Amino acid sequence: MKPSTTTSAFVERLRAIDYRTLPAPAVDMARQVFLDGLGVIVAGAAEPLGVGRISIDYVRAMGGAEQATVVTGGFKTSMQNAAYANGTMAHALDWDNTWYPLNHPTSPTLPAILAIAEHRRLPGERIIEAIAAAFEVQARLRLAATGLKTGQGFHKPGTTGTFGAVAGSARLLGLDHEQTLMALGLAGSRAGSIALNTGTMTKSSHSGHAARMGVECAVLAQMGWTATADVFGPKGFFDTFLNGDGRPELLTEGFAAPLRMVEPGVGFKKYPSNYFTHRPIDAALALREEHRIRPEQIARVEVVFPPFDYVNRPHPRSGLDGKFSIQYTTLVALLDGDITVDSFTNERRFAPDVEALLPAVTLTVDPSIPTDFDQTWATVNVWLKDGRALGLRMATLSGWIGHPLTREQRLKKFFSCTRHAIDERDARRVLEQAERLETLPDITEIMTIARGPATPRP
């Protein structure tokens, strides 16, 4: 008889997720997650400061059995190493999707799922099942971990994301109840990352580490490795990481009824920057278009924002750090009329026009604005040299729950992600297969395209 613990009940619900009983909206969302996730991995390989390049070179140097693809790397390596590199690249641009409560559900999980599925030649319906399981586990843990604060302490991809990666891997490998308990228990000793590393390359590696540990924990558990059978019980995850600030009952309460990837859903990012910067970006772009603002007209800029220090970075240290700066992203949106991967190079960050105007961008904290991401808003005010004062409050968030990107917008993003690394005909082939993922016998062709041509060892 199975022990009566919250962790055991959680595992029963996790193992009950089955492709054959998934609702159609969940299958469709899993397809979208697959395509968007693969696209941002491809784009992340070319992150301007070298996150992708170093990650690829690192796993190449480490060696490993040729089991799974390193995206754009031109080679295969072990499942764990491939999951690490691809997970890091998936988060390199901060373009990977998110949801509510805030978490990055794809970058820590999909790379682990891809690595196992490719090596084991598993069918698309099993991948969809694994994505659904990985997402639901992260969602329930994120809801239960009430002490896990946004932008503070432990960074979510390395904590809740690690458990999501283990869950997806466990479903793909067909772990039984006891093995899944062991895999999650082992994950408790593999989880951890600190938000202090935001703005550096290390933040991206939190997702890579989680993906790698997802593979490792599931494989070791399948081989008979032991761990605590009650990682979410007394002295476990909640007590260790959060000083008991959690509600473990939320792990099982409402589990998959409905799946949270369906309701409230998943937010797909329109811009490659921290999601808190997107409302000010949208406001700046709307003002620029409506009033035909030219850079030389701008005298000063104010962003009115809730109290959230995470994105208060008046002088970002690099283009990468600029992804987490309200001041920088708002200014570049006004100057360039768009926010792209190229907005976060060091060249753009330290360009003369940015250097000249960045000191004129101020952030005004308004404590009356709610900090809850789903309910917050931002106002951008622009003063022009001719004396005009323009302003726009932005509450709607493009790509967020309730305001999804259209299929056309999602595909525009995908092809933007892949255009420098994958031939358009091949990218369209990936799209065609991803949109019928559940019918595929395996993902060999997709991963072959994503891998790219073989490259010689240095």
UniProtKB/TrEMBL annotation:
Q: Name one Pfam family in it.
A: MmgE_PrpD_C
Q: Which residues form a coiled coil?
A: none
Tell me where in this chain the MmgE/PrpD C-terminal domain is found.
271-438
What InterPro entries has UniProt attached to this entry?
A: MmgE/PrpD_sf, MmgE/PrpD_sf_1, MmgE/PrpD_sf_2, MmgE_PrpD, MmgE_PrpD_C, MmgE_PrpD_N
| Domain MmgE/PrpD N-terminal as annotated: residue spans | 15-245
Please state which protein family the record places this protein in: Belongs to the PrpD family.
Question: Could you tell me what this protein is called?
Answer: MmgE/PrpD family protein
